[in-house]
Amino acid sequence: MHTLHNTQKLPLTLQYAWDFLSTPANLKIITPEYMGFEMTSLHHGDKMYAGQIITYIVKPILNIPLKWCTEITHVHKPDYFVDEQRFGPYSFWHHQHRLVAIENGVLMEDIVHYKLPLGFIGRWVNSLLVQKQLEDIFEFRKQKLIELFGEYKEN
Question: CA-CA distance, 111 to 4, in Å (whole number)?
């Protein structure tokens, strides 16, 4: 099992951050273009809710399309939601999205637990490629959110 943990402070109200991040359509905005992200579910709704199924196609390696299906398993507005992979490239994927109001903004926290299939081969592929790619995706998101909403300034 592998873990990624990212935090970012944003100059937004808790409610505004929640409204943006809990809108499925906004995921494409904060995903790098090279991923070829395309939402394929037709009835995914405007806001995330527990039990929601969202399907995508992503092209993370050599432009080869992979189908990915996630379920939003937990929603506690405006504090957190959790998505879990139901089928896709991982043998396990659990992603917590947490928001905490702070002075002059919000702290956004992502905690991802994941596992690749194929035992030691999956661990090798993770160390060779996947972990770096996931870190790059989260770095892209950080920069995109700064571009969209500005940088958080400490007092």
Answer: 6
Report field, pTM of the whole predicted structure over 0.85: yes
Q: 62 CB contacts (<8 Å, ≥6 apart)?
A: none
Gap between the Cα atoms of 4 and 145, Å rounded: 19
Q: What is the pLDDT of residues 51-88, one digit of tens each?
A: 999 999 999 878 889 999 999 999 999 999 999 999 99
C-beta of residue 5 within 8 angstroms of C-beta of residue 108: no
**If we measure between CA atoms, which residue out of 148, 139, 149, 151 comes closest to residue 7?**
139
Two tokens at 27? 């995921």
The b-or-e profile of 94-119 (16+ CB within 10 A means b, else e) is bbebebbeeeebbbbebbbbbebeee
> Do residues 37 and 55 touch, judged by C-beta distance below 8 A?
no
Alpha carbons 11 and 34: distance in angstroms, whole number: 28
CA-based torsion, 48, 64, 2, 10: positive or negative: negative
Neighbours of 69 (CB within 10 A): 15
Q: What distance in Å separates the CA atoms of residue 141 and residue 29, rounded to the nearest whole number? A: 9
